[in-house]
Recover the amino acids of this structure.
């Protein structure tokens, strides 16, 4: 079996922030959760009720304040996670350099698909894992088989921050 090294051309391997965020499980969970809880809080505090089907759930003053408290607590927990993930991906996309790596293992859980890979940066080996939400077309890619040579986008000053390009690229 011959191994074909992928090209290191930056233009053909460009990733988008929106694509990364759409596949990232913490963002996919925390984003809609925050939007939903704020929508409920808006209805509870602004209108005093929550429209449900053909009726509505009416909230008293103390219930609306409780909903606001829960909304703020969830925002304090989920908001920083969402912001941190966006900053994390943006820094890799802005400053990242392309290196060759090799897939060593992959695994599937109920909600995510994980790929472990190794690469060298400044003659030092690094082993990393990227995980995305499960999607059949990504799991079926032959280029993610253990032993495959892949392209890795690595932050030059923090090589522990890296992205496996094949995992995040669009289907061709």
């Amino acid at each position: 079996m011959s191994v074909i090294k992928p090209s290191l051309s930056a233009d053909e391997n460009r990733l988008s922030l929106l694509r990364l965020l759409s596949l990232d499980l913490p963002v996919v969970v925390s984003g809609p959760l925050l939007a939903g809880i704020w929508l409920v809080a808006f209805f509870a505090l602004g209108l005093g009720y929550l429209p449900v089907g053909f009726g509505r759930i009416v909230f008293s003053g103390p219930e609306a304040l409780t909903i606001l408290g829960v909304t703020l607590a969830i925002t304090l927990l989920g908001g920083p996670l969402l912001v941190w993930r966006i900053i994390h991906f943006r820094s890799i996309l802005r400053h990242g350099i392309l290196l060759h790596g090799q897939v060593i293992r992959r695994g599937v859980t109920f909600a995510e698909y994980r790929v472990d890979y190794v690469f060298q940066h400044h003659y030092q080996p690094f082993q990393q894992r990227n995980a995305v939400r499960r999607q059949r077309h990504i799991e079926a890619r032959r280029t993610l088989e253990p032993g495959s040579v892949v392209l890795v986008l690595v932050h030059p000053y923090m090589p522990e921050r890296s992205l496996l390009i094949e995992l995040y690229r669009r289907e061709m």
Q: What stands out?
A: The first helix runs from residue 17 to 23.
